Amino acid sequence: MSEATGPVLAADGTPLKRSLSRALRMQKLRALALVAPLLLFVLVTFIAPIADMLFRSVENEIVENTLPRTAAVLADWDADHTDLPGDDAFEAAYYDVFIAAERKLHTRLGTRLNYELTGVSSLFRKTGRALDDIGEVYQDQFKALDKDWDKGTPWAELMGTQAWIDGAQGWKKADGPLDRLVVRDDIAALLPATAAAYQEFADFSILEDDKSPLKEEPWTLVHSALYTDLAALDVSGYGGPRAEMLKAADALVATPEFETINTREALIDIEDGWADHEVWQTIKTYSPKYTSGYFLNAVDMQKSPEGPIMRDEDERIYGLLFKRTIFMSLAITISCVLLAYPVAWILANLPMRKANLLMILVLLPFWTSLLVRTSAWKVMLQQQGVINDVLVWLGLVSDTERLVMINNQFGTIVAMTHILLPFMILPMYSVMQTIPPTYLRAAKSLGANNWTAFWRVYFPQSVPGIGAGSILVFILAIGYYITPEIVGGTTGTFISNRIAYHISSSLNWGLAAALGTLLLAVVLILYWAYDKIVGIDNVKLG
Amino acid sequence: MADSGHNDAFVEFERVQKSYDGESLVVKDLNLTMPKGEFLTMLGPSGSGKTTCLMMLAGFETATHGDIRLDGVSINNIPPHKRGIGMVFQNYALFPHMTVAENLSFPLEVRKLGKSEREAKVKRALEMVQMGAFGGRRPAQLSGGQQQRIALARALVFEAELVLMDEPLGALDKQLREHMQFEIKRIADNLGITVVYVTHDQTEALTMSDRVAVFNDGRIQQLAPPDQLYEEPQNSFVAQFIGENNTLEGVVQEIRGDVCTVRLDDGEVIDAKPVNVTKAGERTRVSIRPERVEYNKDRLQEGAHTLKAEVLEFIYMGDIFRTRLRVAGNDEFIIKTRNAPDQTRLTPGQQIEIGWLPADCRALDAS
């Protein structure tokens, strides 16, 4: 009785709990080691890609990454207004698109924004090609003043620290990447735009072109920036390297003969899309890192200044597709239940040997290629196909009015019911097998006729099989792709066909991911509802 | 009681045959008549046709030939659910998706009884098997014995006059089984119902029944009350199947009315009561119950026949002693003696003399 208080101790005096968990730890570790390969495999090849794919449905870093300055400027712009944004936005766009074009990123951005607004793709492509025209105006004038303005070394001397220049002298490709160019503090303070543009150029040239800025003539963008700085700022106090060259340029800019160009007009000149309010609005709307745009798109909505709104009636497609997918999956599930129940019953009530033989017939389709089965239905159902031929031959259908049974919903439901039938029969069969025939006998001996005995006694016990089969078939059907693709035509295709289209043809992966996420959510919600209504404990696979 | 004429016959089998495969008969020419209120047990080894008979009576199997009558009406073509026969199945067959009360209510519902009437009857039936408090439980929440009671109540709740029981106690442990035997018998007697009970447990058959039909090879070997069955087996199968039995083989030498002489295979000649031997020269199996054999000379009755025997084994079983002897070349000769204060205990190797009354020694067929 003295041991009644305090923790129970093992024979060696350690608490029993700890001693037990130590004894079990080894077992747990061993069990974990056994499942680890599969776990790792599933994690790497299945879970991770799916998570990545789902993440794409909200990910939208491309705008922010490609047009950082524009996005920052547009953050303050009131997009509801019909006015175009100010000159600073055009300036920023010029910088961003120029750099993106050098990096060849502007077309990708164009493709991305083209999902939201048609025409943006060509806008960016054209702009990228013609953007050098703007800077060349300044480049040519500076070059005419002093040839050094078009050479690598003088620019580097003007901008870079002596230490960096010394390090970069005599650099060869074989030495590996050059150190990042360091802009002198005084010049960065004096010519901020030029310093930023030059730094951008130097980084690009070192990292992506693998060339020394000492040997490369700078981008025309740098000349534009130099003009901007010289026009606005005073450089008379400068005394660093290449001071005379800079001051001469400053003097040139001050002369009335110096030719200037307005960035806004130049851009609009290149592509009049830049004068389109909607283009700027789209850029602003999609500049945050994460967007609900793909999801809105997936439910036939779009962003607008007043918040999300439904798309125009004739542009709505996904709502219809989702509804159709669910409706057809239900139709397939129900027809599977109706066809499979009697078969499963027969299988469960036949003697073993005959049941096995019939089971082979049930499983036979499993061993045939899915494509072959689907194609066989095409042969059966088409207008010049077997069924129509027989009906015409029997005189039930006239030769001119052959039934249309394929490339529509009917064809998809027929073919998919056939393909998914084994998934319904097998769980039903295994559940029915466990229902002893004595229950029916008992019911009859208690006075129930055949129907009552079946409906009150047998059927309730077979419900778990129906549940398991229905979940299996419905979930398989809702994500089915190949069969609707082949026999569905235009009215019998599923949402999965649209997802496949966006993955492989339109390359709009974000939308595909959003559609996939929604599909997954629908399945999970239905599963949850099933659990609430029927109870998942009532599902037996055998 | 066992005496039944055609007038008060309640259940009748007349020349009933059953074959499943069209090649061999499982039930061969069955004739059986039961009066109302009788508790009849069909006893036999597995495959003897007893369950088939029960299933034919319940309507789950059709007779290949012959007539089955219930209360004078041929029921061959009446489907099971219209026969109104209660049945208790081997594994109870309680519907797992219904509560106990729903199970009991089921036969009343299909008979379209009103709700209040149903509830009253269910309550009464549950109380009858002392399960009144269990109406709301599911069968899976009950023990084997409780399920057994519910199955019984369900077979009785719609007031069937005939109740069939197919090895209903087979799944219970020994103690519970004995208790339920008594319980079933009591309820059957109280309600005055007619019961056909199938079992392969002879103790069950002997303790419960008014009459026992011993089945073998598709035929009733003997139909008699338990005491008669035990003490006066009509053939060697019944003698072997019911209780323990010693057999000595030999040839009939002479039959003189109530007594015959048999020359055993080792040359010894004994007297016996001829039961189904007909003429001299026939091979026979002489049957003697172990408890009718005496080795204590003082207790031997007048006119007892004595034989030499050698003790092979002595087993102390508490209430009785069980001794294995070699008698007339038979090594498996068993005698049972009561553990009385004056009883001597035998030791293996001992040579003794045993004896019995010729009337307890029955000359049966040799097969």
Automatic annotation (TrEMBL), chain A:
Which residue numbers delimit the ABC transmembrane type-1 domain? 322-530
Membrane topology is: Multi-pass membrane protein
From what superkingdom does this record's organism come? Bacteria
> Do you know which PROSITE patterns this protein is assigned to?
ABC_TM1
A Gene Ontology biological process in which this protein takes part is:
transmembrane transport
- Sorted alphabetically, which Pfam families does this protein's record hold? BPD_transp_1
Principal location: membrane
GO cellular component: a single term: plasma membrane
Q: Where in the cell is it found?
A: Cell membrane
- Membrane spanning segments where? 31-51, 326-348, 355-372, 410-431, 463-482, 509-530
Q: Could you tell me the keywords of this UniProt record? A: Cell membrane, Membrane, Transmembrane, Transmembrane helix, Transport
> Coiled-coil segments, which residues?
none
Family (UniProt)? Belongs to the binding-protein-dependent transport system permease family. CysTW subfamily.
**Protein name in the entry:** Spermidine/putrescine transport system permease protein PotB
Give the organism the record lists: Pseudoprimorskyibacter insulae
Q: Which gene encodes it?
A: potB
TrEMBL record, chain B:
In its keyword annotation, does this UniProt entry include Transport? yes
Task: Identify the EC number(s).
Answer: 7.6.2.11
Query: Which keywords does UniProt give here?
Result: ATP-binding, Cell membrane, Hydrolase, Membrane, Nucleotide-binding, Translocase, Transport
Q: Which reaction does it catalyse?
A: ATP + H2O + polyamine-[polyamine-binding protein]Side 1 = ADP + phosphate + polyamineSide 2 + [polyamine-binding protein]Side 1
| GO molecular function terms listed in the Swiss-Prot or TrEMBL record | ABC-type polyamine transporter activity; ATP binding; ATP hydrolysis activity
The ABC transporter domain sits at 11-242
**Superkingdom of source:** Bacteria
Recorded hits in InterPro entries, A to Z, give: AAA+_ATPase (IPR003593), ABC_SmlMolc_Importer (IPR050093), ABC_transporter-like_ATP-bd (IPR003439), ABC_transporter-like_CS (IPR017871), Mo/tungstate-bd_C_term_dom (IPR008995), P-loop_NTPase (IPR027417), PotA-like (IPR005893), Transp-assoc_OB_typ2 (IPR013611)
Q: Name one GO cellular component term.
A: ATP-binding cassette (ABC) transporter complex
Q: Name one Pfam family in it.
A: TOBE_2
- Oligomeric form and interacting partners: The complex is composed of two ATP-binding proteins (PotA), two transmembrane proteins (PotB and PotC) and a solute-binding protein (PotD).
Q: Which NCBIfam families match?
A: potA
Its biological purpose: Part of the ABC transporter complex PotABCD involved in spermidine/putrescine import. Responsible for energy coupling to the transport system.
**What protein family is recorded?**
Belongs to the ABC transporter superfamily. Spermidine/putrescine importer (TC 3.A.1.11.1) family.
The protein's name is Spermidine/putrescine import ATP-binding protein PotA
Lineage, broadest ranks: Bacteria, Pseudomonadati, Pseudomonadota, Alphaproteobacteria, Rhodobacterales
